[in-house]
Amino acid sequence: MIKSIKVMLLPNNKQRTKLFQSAGVARWAYNWTLAKQQENYKNGGKFISDGELRKELTQLKKTEEFSWLNNYSNNITKQSVKDACLAYQRFFKHQADFPKFKSKRKSRPSFYIDNCKIEFSENKVKLEKLTDSKKQNKQKINWIKLAEKNRIPLNCKYYNPRVTFDGINFWVSVGVDYEENTEQPINDGIGIDIGIKDLAICSNGNTYKNINKTKRIKKLKKKKRRLQRKVSRKYLKNKKGCSYCKTSNIIKSEKELLKLNHRLTNIRHNYLNQVTSEIIKREPKFIVLEDLNVRGMMKNRHLAKAVQEQCFYEFYRQIQYKCNWNNIEFVVADRFFPSSKLCSCCGNIKKDLKLSDRTYICECGNVIDRDYQASVNLCNYGKSIV
After folding, report:
1. How many whole angstroms separate alpha carbon 182 and alpha carbon 325?
2. Residues in a beta bridge with 193
3. Are strands 286-290 and 329-333 parallel, antiparallel or unpaired?
């Protein structure tokens, strides 16, 4: 079982410059490959394999115009050529949209490192060819400090190592092979109803609150609104004719806003990790979630923001991969399954149930919270399938 680990890097100024340059080389190689494929297609040629393009790129490096590519690891350009060819093929197989050229401003800076040449110590990572000098003091540039100690296991095989930049920090991510878990869970299954009022209501009686209603998040969101207005005012103040002039103060304010956005995202994702881990630790036989029409919910302008902040997709994703790690069966209930309208006692379906009705009252005398009943019905749905 391959698990991916992502750790933040703490580079100095020289290392930071080299990382940005390496990302620029990867972007150039990707765009060069895409341009070659498009030109070849217009001339009526067949698909050019990545092997042929890499040979052509090797010859290109020998010329004076492109000799600067020799200052960087050849694995960066090799993998970028492969990625571009794969993206081009996926379009013709109707698996993805047509690949776009990577922009320096809009695309996320990232590059590949050879899995045989990357090295890890307790608190550092060695990247290939950040410096060409063989002097011992210069070789230290290749070793970049990690933000966490002993996070990545040593002396093992690494899969697809990459360095990425998220707008504030650089990160290194690697895949590590772990032994598969053979233990089979023995506890009762759990049905989970996710919503806006509360994040998750479980059939075992546990309720996980909506973190976006806490004082901490509300305070950060208020600060974000003020920063957004501040940036907007600065743009209007520096408007010259039809265009906007981007000053150093605007860049500084935008960086503050980016940091705040990252902080909000990290708090939400950390809370989701805590909730999903707590559910998985109960070792249920199966977990049932409902296939919600999130795109349809986002069309409601009164609910769109609340739905977006709940991060339903991230919750699904985390539950799914944690179930696979722990041999728990993950069941997705049909979108049209009446989890809220179905009585858990008599099986009657209440078709006129509104979203404002928070308590379910049935003719058989069953009075129950609608969200908890939905989780119970989902649990029963899982039992019937498993």
Report:
1. 10
2. 201
3. parallel
pLDDT reported for residue 357: 77
Write the CA distances from 204 to 186, 188, 315, integer angstroms.
15, 9, 18
Token match 């890499």: residue?
54
> How does pLDDT run across 313-324, given as a tens digit for each residue?
999 999 999 999
Burial of 128-150, coded b for 16+ CB within 10 Å and e otherwise, reads bbbeeeeeeeeeebbebebeeee
Across the chain, mean pLDDT equals: 91
Beta bridge partners of 118: none
Q: Are residues 109 and 164 in contact, defined by beta-carbon separation less than 8 angstroms?
A: yes
Cα–Cα distance measured from residue 21 to residue 27, given in angstroms and rounded to the nearest whole number: 10
Helix (H) or strand (E) holding 246: none
- Tokens found for residue 356: 């404002």
Burial class (CB in 10 A: 0-12, 13-18, 19+), 250: middle
The one-character DSSP state at 208 is E
pTM of the model: 0.86
For every residue of 150-191, DSSP letters joined together read T-S-SSS-EEEEEEEE-SS-EEEEEEEE-PPP-PPP-BPPEE
Q: Given a cut of 90, is residue 239 above it in pLDDT?
A: no
